[in-house]
Structure formats: structure tokens, C-alpha cells
Amino acid sequence: MKRIEKYGIILRFAEVDDAEFILSLRTDPKLGKFISYTDPDIATQRKWIENYKKREKSGQEYYFIAEDKKGDSYGTIRLYNFDERSFEIGSWLFRADAPLGMAIKAHFIGFEVGFEKLQAEYCRFDIRKENTGVLRYMQDFITNLIGEDELNYYFTLSKENFYKRRSEIALFSVKSKKGEAKIFIHPTAEIKSNNIGEGTSVWQFCVVLKDAIIGRNCNLNYNVFIENDVILGNNVTVKSGVQIWNGIRLEDNVFIGPNVTFTNDLVPRSKIYPKSFEKTVIKKGASIGANATIIAGNEIGAFALIGAGSVITKSVGKNELWVGNPARIIGYVTREGDILDLNLIHKESKKKYGWINNELKVVND
């Protein structure tokens, strides 16, 4: 428990000698505006840690330093205010130059300690209202808003909903690494990520950056580029000549045709970067035809089909068929790939379809 090595990072208990590092985080002008006031006196910080170590020894609180395998410290996370059913998580602070994904990995480990070691049923936490980045990040969790004041929102997250979210991310649900997993990587590919699922094939001249997450049984064709903040689910096919940028999520069984273009910045400027990139989600089973363009910030619904060469400027609903520039809906497509018109009639068989248990099914023969 004093030292946890998981997901490629290390969490260890804070010590008195960490006072200077912790103070550097808590007094950082950008990080400090989202937390309570911290006395900048190093002696005061050392005294606080001495008192914390007593609470740690009695099992009342855990304060972790997050490190890489070289022993360089990048951030902190703290579990405290334990009761019979819950715990609080906070002091989630990381250096601006921390490796991408380290803060999220540490956050998940913190939750796992609370739910597994403390056997808590739910977690409590607060987020400053002006901390829009963390608020957006937490939108992917199923949380309960239990209150607010002038500065903060107050939330709870159940054990069940945490593990549901964890199961949706390949990094936390697939225990496979290069050299250990049965994956194929062509010798010409440049693969920095260890987060690649079993059964995946990566072909000639692909580039995958180190924090990208690739699920099981995926197929990355010739000359695919994948940036850091990218998550691919299981059974995803990406055909040749596709670039997948920060902020893009492809869920299970998605098909991306050759030379599809994604974007992640609505107002791009050379050497001027947004505070955060737009998030684009392609839901499970959706297919995007060759040379289509997907404008940043939109969602393509489950089992939807985007025609070749189309330009998507708005979100697409489940099972919808869109074509054109700008694209518009012209019909529907079943999970099995049958094309229907806007009245849900199969164009060849003339069979009528309808929504049954949220799926398109034949309603007459």
C-alpha cells in the first residue's frame, strides 16, 4: 500500500521531504486558483505532513505522490474523510509538464484504493465552478450532483458507476502490452504506446503516440497516424491515410474508411493552441465512408452510416444515413446494413421497419 505501481506509473505515500514539491504545486498560480489557500511557508507545510503521517498510520487518510518509473514526481492525489460507506478524493494536482495521461491514471488508482481497500460504496468530491477542464472530464462519469455553493459543485460517484466507466476505457480493461500481448506490429510502424489490445494489427508506416489507447482486435491499415489523447474501442477498423487527433473517441466496432478527415479545432491558427481540443465521438458500430470529413465537436450515433465524401457539420443520430456537403439525413440503416428510406421502408423489399427495443426491426412481411 505504501507504493502502488500500476498502469505504468507509481503512487507512493507522501513524506516530509516532499514538502517543497507539494508546496510548488499548491502555490502554482494556475493550479492554486482551483484549491483552498495554502500557506507558502515551507516549515508550515512540513508540519502539516508530519500531522498527516499520524493520520496515515492510523488509517484515516492517504496522501500519494505520483511518479514515473525514473522516480520523478509530477503530482498528488489524496483520500480522506473516510466513513463506513464513503471517502473523499481531492488534492488532484499535476505539473503542467506531466506525461499525458498520468493524472487520469492516478485518479483511477485513487478511486480503486477507495473502493477496493476501503470497501466504500461511493466517493465524494468537489470541483470549482471555474475549473471547466475537470468538469468536462467528469461528464463522462455517471455522477450525482448533491449541492453547490458560490465556488464549488459537490458530487458523489458510486462504486458501480466508477467501474462501469473504467470498463469503457481499453487502458483499464485490457491487460496487454507490446511483447506480452499477441499483437502484430509491422517493422516500419512507429509505435510509442504500450496500451494496445490483444489481437490488434498495425500495418506499414503507422504512427501511434505513447498515450493513445487501442482496444482489442483492431486493424490499423497503411499510413495511419494516432495522436496522444485518443481512445479506440475493440474491433475498430481504420483504413489507410487516416489521422486521428487529440480528443477523438472511436467506440467498439467502428469502421473508418480510407482518407477520412477528422478535425479537433474549430478556429485553427498556426502555433496558437486552444485550452482544450474539441471532443468528437463515433459511437459503437458506426461507419464513415471514404474521404468524408468530420468537423470537430460532433457525435456520430451508433450504427449510423456516413456516405463517401460527405462533410459532417452537426451531430448524427443513431442508425441515420447522411450524405452530401454539408451532409443531411436521407434515410436509415439497420444494424445489419440494410438501407431504409426516411419512412423506414426497405428500398428493395419494401418491408416496413420500426423501432423495437431501440433497434430497427421489420414490423411487417
CATH class of one domain: Alpha Beta
CATH superfamily annotation of one domain: Gcn5-related N-acetyltransferase (GNAT)
What is the first-to-last residue Cα distance? 63 Å
Percent in helix: 10-25%
Count the DSSP helices: 7
Q: Can you name the CATH architecture of one domain? A: 3-Layer(aba) Sandwich
- From the spread of the alpha carbons, the general shape counts as elongated
Structural class: alpha/beta
- How much β-strand is present in the residues? 25-35%
Tell me about the largest β-sheet.
10 strands, mixed
Mean pLDDT across all amino acids: 92
Per CATH, what is the topology of one domain?
Aminopeptidase
Compute the CA-based radius of gyration.
Answer: 23 Å
Q: What does this entry show, briefly?
A:
By secondary structure, the protein is an alpha/beta fold.
